Amino acid sequence: MIEPWEKLDSQYLGDFRIFRLRQDTSLSPRTGATHRFFVLETPDWVNVIPLTTEGNVIMIRQYRHGNEEITLEVPGGMVDAGEEDDPALSAARELREETGYAADEVIHLGSVAPNPAFLNNRCHSYLAVGARPVAEVALDGAEDIAFEEIPLADIPGLIRTGVITHSLTITAFYYLELYRRESHAKTPRTQSEEME
């Protein structure tokens, strides 16, 4: 049976604005040996799928420094201080900042641990129903984002062909598919059918 490891020591090695690097020393319950582990402490993240009444998704393109590529993904970002108890606030804020859009309703689809091997946070996926432009884009100094409308029906093909590669964006669309299936199973005529 797998058991939790006992943490013997923990120390911070650096603070880098969007994450803090922590080194833990923990005891293996199986062998009794100690090992060092490195953890990135970072705020939770949000992803939001903005869906227009016409059935289009507002997607963004931006340059990502990790893989040095321009990616196609959904709007998203960090859960800011004061929004931890309701990440839907962060989803609505990020949507507005990155696209200038707002929505009639923001629905939680699901949450994942992006990489529990070395990250301590969660990523929350939301559906923004009735997305429509309401304001100018308000990017921060390090953001360079363009957005476009893509038919929801085109998303599986864009994932399959490798146009969409951001794992958390793919996760959000998987959660959306689960949501649509569950909604379809509950009533004869559902929101999921209206989105098609």
Write the layout of secondary structure elements.
Layout: E1 6-15, E2 20-27, E3 34-41, E4 45-51, E5 56-64, E6 69-73, E7 76-78, H1 87-99, E8 101-102, E9 105-112, E10 123-129, E11 132-133, E12 145-151, H2 155-160, H3 167-186, H4 191-195
How would you sum up this structure, described in words?
The protein is an alpha+beta fold. The protein folds into 2 domains: 6-41, no CATH class; 45-195, Nucleoside Triphosphate Pyrophosphohydrolase (Alpha-Beta Complex), CATH 3.90.79. The protein is 22% helix and 39% strand. The strands form 4 sheets. The protein has a 4-stranded mixed β-sheet, with helices on both faces. Strands 1-2-3 form a 3-stranded antiparallel β-sheet, with no helix packed on it. Strands 6-5-12 form a 3-stranded antiparallel β-sheet, with no helix packed on it. Strand 2 (20-27) and strand 3 (34-41) form a beta hairpin.
